[in-house]
Amino acid sequence: MSDKDPWTTEYLEEKFANPDPWRYSTSSYERLKYKRQIDVINDRSHDPQMILEIGSAEGAHTLMLARQYPYARITSIEITRRAINRATQNLHRFRDRVELINADIADYAPALEDNAYDVCVWSESVYYIGAQQPMNKAYDLLKIAIRKLKPRGLLVMANTVDLPGDIPESVLTKRPLIDCYYNLLSSIAASALRAIYFEEKFRRLYEYQIWAFKR
After folding, report:
1. Residue 6, pLDDT above cutoff 90
2. Which residue ranges form the domains of the chain, and what is each CATH number?
């Protein structure tokens, strides 16, 4: 295994040396997780026209969003060059309304327009931010993300809790840390949902939570 810290850009670039390292495009577990987030959007945001996606990887979820909302413009931000290159190929047919940006959201967020997005989808990557930034900076970034939403705009997140110890990111997903992100968001936006799921992936049981917050 790589000796790079499992939350650096270099580590993620290495992970994406091979396509779809986490099986986002092929795993029924991951596809159901994406579908559940889309269901949350359908229940709480009528016909979103502007969608921001943070941490798009190779575009598996982006593709589902583009198909579900055929009139929406989607801005997807991904830190990993290899992943964004594959996303560009995977989303070629939607290039007229999907913008893919290779950037670190911590650096790029201030450049995004305020009050611009009906929905922000931010899945499985907030813990990387928490690993790279001191807590006050992570909190500031969450506030910036909420500010990019239109009034009553919706933030939807999926976050895995307590990954097994043999998975490098396990240290980032400890329950107290995930609870901390939820509490930080609850202090700056109105909590609309906190749903907890236990499901099997590769013969192991995982917990993940889907959250929704209204600006």
Report:
1. no
2. 9-214 (3.40.50.150)
